[in-house]
Each structure stands twice: as structure tokens, then as C-alpha cells.
């Protein structure tokens, strides 16, 4: 009986901790450099500061990712429903050329940045945001605080509801 009670308590604590909401990016994340469409490296913090005062929906994706491509119609629906939101696409593509070709092929409208890391999702930026799946969506409010840290392509209702609360 004691073992069952202990197991139950540990299970609840584990679930509670894994659902904890991150409210800010770490210093390490903010210092990470991403690449813009012109090939210029920009610290992640500078990208966030550029859009301060606006709600940001960030999608971490890659052109080779089937789930990412499959979710694009939903992103386009969100863009039509929430035109006031800044859409920031952060690519985990393996090369600059494949990334740019993916943007054109899928006609992605928004702000685009590329993580130049040969380790991809398992690289420094991916680790700094706890990236374990793409597409991954993060919503940042107008104050620069994280409203939704971890959402995937099956959670568009949650993403839409969060955006609705920020209008």
C-alpha cells in the first residue's frame, strides 16, 4: 500500500513538473544566433525585441518535416483570423538553400529565420528551447512574456484560444 501511494505521489509530481509553463527564454536562448533571409546572423533576443509590443506566434519547423507541411493550412487559417499577430518562422533545415526553397514552395508569409546548426533540432538552439518535436509553436505576448511554450500541430485549438485571450 505504501509503495502504491508513493508511486501515485511521484507520478502526480512528475506530471505537474512536465506541464510547468516557461514564462521567459533563458539567457542562453536569447544569446543564440539565428540567420535572416539576407544571411546575417542575429541574436534571438534581438529578434524578439524587434517585435516587442506585438503578439508573436513562433513556429519552429523544417521544409523536410511532413507534420510541418501538413500543418501549414492551419497556420494560414490563423494568419487570416489573427492578422495582428507577428508570425515568426524558425527553420531547422540543414541548409540555407533548402530553407529558402521551402519558404517559397510553401508560400509562407511572415518573418523568417534559420538555425544554422549541423546538429539540427539536437543542436544548441534546439536544446535551449527544449525542442523535442516539430512543428513546435510558442506564443509570446506584447510584453515579451511567453504565454504558450509548448504546442504541436495537433493543438491548434489551444493556440487559437491563447491568441484570442491576447487580443
Automatic annotation (TrEMBL):
Q: Which GO terms describe its biological process?
A: cytochrome complex assembly
* GO CC terms: cell envelope
The listed locations are: Cell envelope
Stored InterPro entries: Thioredoxin-like_fold (IPR012336), Thioredoxin-like_sf (IPR036249), Thioredoxin_domain (IPR013766), Thioredoxin_ResA/DsbE_sf (IPR050553)
Q: Which UniProt keywords apply?
A: Cytochrome c-type biogenesis, Disulfide bond, Isomerase, Redox-active center, Signal
| PROSITE patterns from the UniProt entry | THIOREDOXIN_2
**Signal sequence extent:** 1-20
Q: What residues does the Thioredoxin domain cover?
A: 23-161
Q: Does the keyword Disulfide bond apply?
A: yes
One matching Pfam family, short form? Answer: Thioredoxin_8
One GO molecular-function entry:
isomerase activity
This one is known as Thiol-disulfide isomerase/thioredoxin
Amino acid at each position: 500500500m505504501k509503495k502504491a501511494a508513493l508511486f501515485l505521489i511521484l507520478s502526480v509530481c512528475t506530471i505537474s513538473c512536465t506541464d510547468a509553463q516557461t514564462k521567459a527564454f533563458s539567457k542562453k536562448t536569447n544569446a543564440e544566433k539565428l540567420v535572416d533571409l539576407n544571411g546575417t546572423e542575429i541574436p534571438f533576443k534581438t529578434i524578439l525585441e524587434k517585435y516587442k509590443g506585438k503578439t508573436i506566434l513562433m513556429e519552429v519547423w523544417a521544409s523536410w518535416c511532413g507534420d510541418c507541411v501538413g500543418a501549414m493550412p492551419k497556420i494560414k487559417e490563423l494568419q487570416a483570423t489573427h492578422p495582428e499577430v507577428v508570425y515568426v518562422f524558425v527553420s531547422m533545415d540543414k541548409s540555407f538553400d533548402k530553407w529558402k526553397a521551402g519558404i517559397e514552395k510553401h508560400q509562407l508569409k511572415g518573418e523568417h529565420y534559420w538555425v544554422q546548426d549541423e546538429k539540427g533540432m539536437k543542436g544548441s538552439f534546439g536544446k535551449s528551447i527544449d525542442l523535442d518535436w516539430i512543428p513546435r509553436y510558442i506564443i509570446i505576448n506584447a510584453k515579451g512574456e511567453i504565454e504558450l511554450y509548448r504546442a504541436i500541430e495537433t493543438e491548434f485549438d489551444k493556440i487559437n484560444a491563447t491568441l484570442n485571450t491576447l487580443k
